[in-house]
From TrEMBL:
Residue intervals of the Nucleoporin Nup133/Nup155-like C-terminal domain: 654-1322
UniProt key word Nucleus: yes
UniProt GO cellular component terms: nuclear pore inner ring
MF annotations from Gene Ontology: structural constituent of nuclear pore
Bilayer-spanning residue ranges: none
Gene source species: Babjeviella inositovora NRRL Y-12698
Compartment list: Nucleus
Nucleoporin Nup133/Nup155-like N-terminal domain location: 92-540
Pfam families per the UniProt record, alphabetical: Nucleoporin_C, Nucleoporin_N
Protein name per Swiss-Prot or TrEMBL: Nucleoporin Nup133/Nup155-like N-terminal domain-containing protein
Family: Belongs to the non-repetitive/WGA-negative nucleoporin family.
InterPro entries assigned: Nucleoporin_Nup133/Nup155_C, Nucleoporin_Nup133/Nup155_N, Nucleoporin_Nup155, Nucleoporin_Nup155_C_1, Nucleoporin_Nup155_C_2
GO biological process: protein import into nucleus; protein localization to nuclear inner membrane; RNA export from nucleus; transcription-dependent tethering of RNA polymerase II gene DNA at nuclear periphery
Keyword terms of this UniProt record: Nucleus, Transport
Length: 1331
């Protein structure tokens, strides 16, 4: 079950592993009706490591081998058969393995028969059953002696039928493995069976469980495996189906056994038997029966066969009138039903067979069904049932299920083969072939049939004196090679085998195929071959399916004659042939170790023949055939020219190579994608890991997902393969190193040879890697005393939970072909756990490590041994503790020295675990030195993994420093002077060691750690070669460190660099408010005015000018920002956007003017901008002054209750602006402004004389300058409005009086007491100056 949980509660694997295979059901994969192409190619093969390349080929071959074409052919004009008795191949597909005669005791029983005798097979308990009247005999056919017969003779009535079924759970004790159901005319009995597959012993117990038969005459009994429900039918009750029920409890109202009719309606389903008084009531049968069954049940129709499709949950019945009924099983009841009559079958077939009326075997009077067989969904999804006629015709019935419904329809018929001679002409040959098959009587009088998944058909043909056994089985190799359905057929038991008077009673499967798809060849090396038993009145005969290697072996041993090897190649393909030859060669070498030993000791000539055939068969590596085109002048196609360079990725490798990969993939296919380890029962799995809450005692793994025997088989198989290549590798093309070819005309051959050598080498390296990995698993099994969970726990407690989760994610492919260092380091961690367990128990490291090196050297190198010895020294130091400080330090020093000997092989876990022990023993300084040295020996380059490893080691150092700081802080808290001195000195030495480490990357992470600890202010006191580059680099992206950088320069009196950093902060993209930027500029301005070295003086001046100019702009931007914040005219959204834009970087002065100041009518700021930018367009400047005055006047007039007159308010605005811009003549043109002020102050007759002069004087304009401007205006005045000229003269009078009054010199020489009216001729100032 997979649970769901929040990501925070999930422990997920941290490994990058090979992608998982497709999880599509087999029958969905089978819909692709194409041949299996084993000539797989791996993209970018040259860039992969040898082990990764070999694993990729195996994975791809497993994928191809798992996708079989459709097993059952669709309707065709004729069916393809290969009649083996016609000696087309000369080799039977089945081998008769043994024949066991009936014991004499059973013959004696037969002779005493009074009523009836029946017999059959129970493969579930490895017994044959023989009924003689009311006595049931169970015969162990593996022990022919009479003592092997178990008799049940306490049944008082004649036995009609028997069946072995599986009991429902928790009804009986666990020892009861089966139930024996026995039907008699009076009662139906249930016996308890205890069967042991190990000892092949059977015990039968009478549980006193029976139910009255009430005339049903039950003779058909089947069981639904999913629910363990038992269904029955009897000759005495027509076509009704009953369910037999049982329990271990009995009371007044319920007995232990009961039965229920599932096909009748109403109350009669519980009590109405096949006979009895109720049946005699006229019309009652029609009231309680299914309306569709009324016609059928009026005749003497009974059920002759019952089958349950366990994969779909469908119950099929076949009646004596050849009517098929199908029921969906739902909760122990019969659901949707469909009836298929002979007429319906013939009508459906007439749509696909045009001449059906001419086929005698399909006419209604000859049509009789003798058997039905379901086809599991794994074999073909839409094919549900195969019905067999008495002429051996196989009728295929397709189906579909929807909701609770069921639909069945006849799809096609498969005719039996014909042995009639055929015409030589091709057209006449095909016509005769179709005609002969449609009219074949080869299987006439078929009485018994069996279907063995996948696709094997068995028929028993009755003759006058004996029975014949016909078997037809798909040629799986031909099917995978061509996607065409061909059946090999033959008579296994004929008159020569049985003799007159031998009759077949039963055919059962004793060993099924491992797979129910057409992928039989894929499992041939891992499972026993399919075997079926044939029970006759003389005994039991066993037949075993011959796998390709057995067929090939017998064909080669047959000696001269037909070319059996060529026939095998044509039927199965070259890859399959090479794979079988290699397996046969290894079988000869193995003699039973890993591979099945050959029958008899092969001769040297035969061994040489097999090995030579493997080395020479098939095509060598070659380039693919290019596309062909036809020229206008020739009918012959010519190869297309290609100028593209040829690479190893384009090469189609040799058939031998693909045969080797095929064999390896089939040996490991069932485990290749399986997980190596099994989680504990309490561990709750989620899609991407496990739930943290389900982990107990820090252990998540139960044991290995395999057994010792399986590991021994795998290792033995690999060793034999490696031995074969070691012995005969020189004779295999491409296995030796290729010679360099310089001939340009042989460039293609060179590429092919190189590709073949690369692929074969990769495969051999993969085999070595697999051997090492499996040997390590063998060690793990031994250490856990044959995979015991409690011993696994002793090892796993030395591993982190995260690494255990990583182990759970490993498949056997990941384990046997590690893709990177992550998996190898994980395995080494498991290896360390094994050694730690042994160290804890006092075991010898040398002994254990040496054993590991011998068995799996790649996982336990000499460096690993040194590491384990170093760990042992650490463990000793820890056990010594403070009892002997000198000895403790000695062991620690030796441990560090050992670690440094193999620093390149140290994993992060090794270093972290060793460091933790050193910290426990107060060996902080040694720990820092140890980790720094380990980091220093990592060759980083551009490898991201090495960089990550070094960074993680640096974090270990920081952890040590944190521990030291903690000791110092606790000593101060306790006010322990001795500890303060001790740990204070330790702190100084450890930090000094860290600061002295000559590595820029380390110092960068060191300073990052300082900052993360909130100690960035300490950077100002650090004096290393790395602190300044660090601050300069980090200052580009970190404001806090940028501020520290200018302080760092200022502390060292480097004012120019400090000013540069402050300026860069002021213009940076950091989210800094405008006021802070102005502050940076202010500080920078202060630094540029400080003393600096002579060679920097010019740069300092230049920087000062830039800073001042930017400060002016920033000040204007701040004014704009402040004004906008207080402007109620602007909407909140627009105001927020404007404030966000202005309160960040300093904008250009043009952007401030055009985007904000001018559009919003801030004319005072416009004038300030004109001054700052030295703007020279006087029209624009005067326009803004005029707009400013108009705005002031408009605001004044809009407020009629103003407390002050206009000239006061206007003067206030003017003097405020004048003080800012009066020193710029273009922005502050006195004459033009005087005219404007005169207009607004005196235009309506208000304002006292001299108020305008006061405005200018308060703005900072001198009397002398104002005098000459005003005098010029009086001389050249034009009446702008009535009284304009007089107003100018009045202002001039006021100006002269104020000037003289304020100037001590003029007051003594110029008399203005009588000056009331100004005239040019009488101007006292002019007269004094002599003008």
């Amino acid at each position: 079950m997979v649970f769901q949980s929040s990501p925070g509660n999930v422990l997920a694997p941290t490994l990058q592993l090979a992608p998982a295979p497709s999880t599509a059901p087999v029958y969905l994969q089978l819909l692709k009706n194409e041949p299996c192409v084993y000539q797989t190619q791996v993209p970018n093969a040259a860039s992969l490591s040898p082990v990764a390349l070999g694993a990729a080929y195996v994975s791809k071959t497993i994928e191809v081998d798992s996708n079989s074409p459709q097993l059952y052919a669709d309707q065709a004009s004729f069916d393809k058969y290969n009649f083996l008795n016609q000696q087309l191949t000369g080799v039977s597909r089945f081998l008769k393995t043994r024949s066991v005669s009936l014991p004499d005791k059973l013959y004696e029983e037969f002779n005493s028969t009074e009523v009836s005798t029946k017999m059959g097979l129970f493969p579930e308990i490895n017994r044959a059953w023989v009924i003689v009247d009311n006595k049931l005999n169970l015969w162990n056919y593996d022990e022919p002696a009479a003592a092997s017969i178990t008799s049940i003779d306490d049944i008082p009535y004649t036995i009609l039928a028997v069946a072995v079924v599986t009991p429902k759970p928790r009804v009986f004790v666990a020892d009861i493995s089966h139930l024996l159901v026995v039907s008699t005319p009076i009662d139906i009995y249930i016996f308890l069976v205890k069967y042991s597959a190990t000892t092949n012993a059977v015990e039968v117990f009478n549980a006193e469980m029976a139910v009255p038969a009430q005339g049903l005459a039950i003779n058909r009994i089947v069981q639904h495996a999913a629910t363990r429900d038992i269904y029955m039918a009897g000759e005495g009750d027509g076509c009704n189906v009953w369910r037999l029920e049982y329990s271990n409890k009995e009371d007044w109202f319920n007995s232990k056994c009961s039965k229920t009719c599932l096909t009748r309606l109403g109350f009669t389903g519980m009590v109405l038997p096949g006979g009895g008084m109720l049946k005699k009531i006229p019309g009652l049968h029609y009231l309680t029966a299914d309306p569709q069954e009324i016609v059928a049940t009026t005749s003497s129709e009974t059920i002759i066969q019952m089958e349950i499709d366990q994969s779909r949950g469908i119950l099929y019945t076949l009646s004596s009138l050849s009517i098929i009924r199908a029921y969906r099983l739902v909760d122990g009841k019969l659901g949707a039903k469909q009836t298929i009559s002979p007429r319906a079958i013939i009508n459906d077939l007439s749509t696909t067979i045009g001449n059906l009326h001419q086929i005698e075997t399909l006419r209604a009077n000859a049509f009789k069904l003798v058997g039905i067989h379901f086809v599991a969904s794994q074999e073909r999804g839409n094919l549900y049932l195969v019905a067999v006629t008495s002429f051996g015709l196989r009728i295929y019935i397709n189906g579909s299920m929807f909701s609770t419904g069921l639909a069945l329809k006849t799809a096609r018929v498969k005719f039996p083969p014909s042995k009639t001679a055929l015409h030589d002409d091709e057209k006449e040959y095909m016509r005769q072939l179709v005609h002969n098959q449609q009219h074949s009587t080869l299987l006439k009088n078929t009485k018994l049939t069996q279907m063995i998944a996948p696709g094997c058909f068995v028929a028993v043909k009755a003759t006058k004196n004996y029975d014949k056994l016909f078997v037809s089985i798909p040629n799986y190799g031909f099917l995978k090679k061509t996607a065409e359905f061909l059946e090999d057929c033959e008579f296994l038991l004929d008159s020569g085998d049985l003799g007159s008077g031998c009759f077949i009673n039963d055919v059962v499967v004793t060993q099924p195929f491992a797979l129910e798809s057409a992928n039989v060849y894929a499992s041939q090396y891992l499972h026993d071959s399919m075997e079926f038993a044939v029970l006759t009145n003389m005994g039991v005969n066993f037949f075993r399916y011959r796998t390709p290697d057995v067929v090939l072996q017998h064909a080669l041993q047959a000696g001269p004659g037909p070319d059996h090897l060529q026939s095998f190649m044509e039927l199965n393909g070259m890859e399959e042939t090479c794979s079988s030859l290699l397996y046969l060669s290894c079988k000869i070498i193995g003699g039973g170790t890993g591979f099945e030993s050959s029958t008899g000791r092969p001769t040297a000539a035969f061994r040489h023949q097999v090995q030579t055939l493997f080395a020479t068969s098939g095509l060598n590596a070659r380039m693919p055939v290019k596309a062909l085109t036809a020229t206008p002048f020739s009918r012959l196609p010519v190869p297309m020219a290609s100028q593209a360079p040829q690479t190893v990725d384009q090469v189609i490798l040799s058939d031998r190579f693909y045969g080797i990969v095929l064999l390896v993939s089939r040996l490991f296919r069932e485990y290749w994608h399986q997980k190596v380890f099994v989680p504990l029962e309490n561990i709750k799995l989620v899609l991407n890991g496990i739930l943290k809450d389900s982990v107990k005692d820090d252990v998540v793994i139960k044991n290995l997902n395999t057994s010792l025997e399986q590991l021994e088989f795998f290792i033995g198989s690999i060793l034999i393969l490696l031995e074969f290549f070691e012995r005969f590798g020189n004779s295999i093309p491409g296995l030796n190193a290729p010679q360099i070819v310089t001939d340009p005309f042989n460039a293609q051959s060179e590429v092919c040879i190189r590709a073949e050598h690369m692929a074969l080498t990769a495969l051999l390296k993969l085999l070595h890697s697999m051997k090492e990995a499996l040997s390590f698993l063998m060690v793990l099994v031994e250490e856990t005393r044959n995979n015991k969970p409690e011993h696994f726990k002793e090892i796993l407690r030395f591993m982190s939970v995260q690494n255990q989760v990583n182990l759970l994610a490993l498949t056997f492919r990941d384990f046997m072909a590690p893709a990177g260092d992550d998996v190898r380091n994980l395995i080494k961690d498991l290896l360390s756990a094994i050694l730690n367990k042994n160290i804890l128990k006092g075991g010898s490291i040398d002994l254990v490590a040496t054993s590991l090196q011998e068995k799996c050297g790649s996982f336990c190198s000499s460096s690993d041994v040194v590491i384990f010895k170093a760990i042992e020294k650490l463990t000793k130091a820890k056990s010594i503790g403070d009892r002997d400080p000198e000895l403790k330090v000695k062991n620690l020093t030796e441990s560090v020295a050992l670690f440094e000997q193999c620093s390149a092989a140290l994993t992060l876990e090794n270093i972290e675990n060793a460091t933790n022990i050193m910290l426990e023993l107060d060996y902080h300084l040694g720990a820092v030195q140890f980790v720094l040295n380990a980091a220093n020996k990592i060759d980083v380059g551009t490898d991201p993994k090495s960089l990550a490893k070094r960074s993680r080691l640096y974090r270990v150092i920081f952890h040590i420093l944190t521990e030291v700081d903690g000791h110092v802080a606790r000593a101060h808290d306790a006010n322990d002077r001795a500890r303060i001195a001790k740990y204070g000195a330790l702190r100084e030495s450890t930090y000094a060691t860290a600061f002295a480490y000559p590595d820029e990357k380390f110092h960068a992470e060191f300073y990052d750690w300082f900052r993360d600890q909130g100690m960035a202010d300490r950077f100002l006191d650090i004096d290393t070669d790395y602190i300044l580059p660090y601050l300069e680099f980090r200052a580009k992206t970190d404001r806090e460190l940028a501020e520290l950088l200018w302080a760092y320069f200022a502390k060292r009196e480097n004012h120019f660099e400090a000013a540069k950093i402050l300026y860069s902060l002021a213009v940076s993209d950091f989210p800094i408010p405008l006021t802070s930027r102005i502050e940076y500029l202010s500080r920078a301005n202060g630094f540029v005015n400080c003393v600096c070295p002579p060679h920097l003086r010019q740069q300092m001046v230049l920087l000062g000018g830039i800073v001042n100019e930017l400060a002016d702009v920033a000040s204007i931007q701040l004014d704009a920002l402040t004004t906008i914040e207080s402007d109620d005219r602007i909407s909140l959204s627009v105001k927020a956007a404007a404030i966000a834009a202005l309160n960040r970087k300093v904008l250009s002065i043009s952007e401030i003017f055009n985007a904000y100041v001018d559009p919003l009518g801030y004319y005072d700021l416009c004038l300030v901008i004109f001054k700052a930018s030295d703007y020279k367009n006087t029209d624009d400047i005067l326009k803004r002054w005029e707009l400013l005055f108009e705005k002031v006047v408009a605001d004044y007039r809009a407020s009629p209750g103003a407390s002050e007159p206009l000239h006061i308010i206007l003067g206030s605005y003017f003097t405020s602006m004048g003080r800012k811009v009066a020193d710029h003549e273009l922005v502050f043109p006195i004459d033009e402004l005087f005219k404007l002020l005169t207009k607004y102050v005196y235009g309506d007759g208000s304002g006292p004389a001299g108020c305008i002069v006061n405005m200018f004087v308060e703005s900072g304009v001198g009397y002398d300058k104002l005098y000459y401007v005003l005098r010029d205006m009086v001389e050249n005045s034009v009446e702008c409005f009535p009284g304009y000229g007089q107003r100018l003269r009045d202002e001039m009078v006021y100006l002269i009086k104020q000037w003289v009054h304020g100037d001590k010199h003029l007051r003594g020489v110029v008399d203005v007491r009588g000056l009331e009216k100004y005239e040019i001729e009488t101007d006292p100032i002019a007269l004094y100056l002599g003008e």
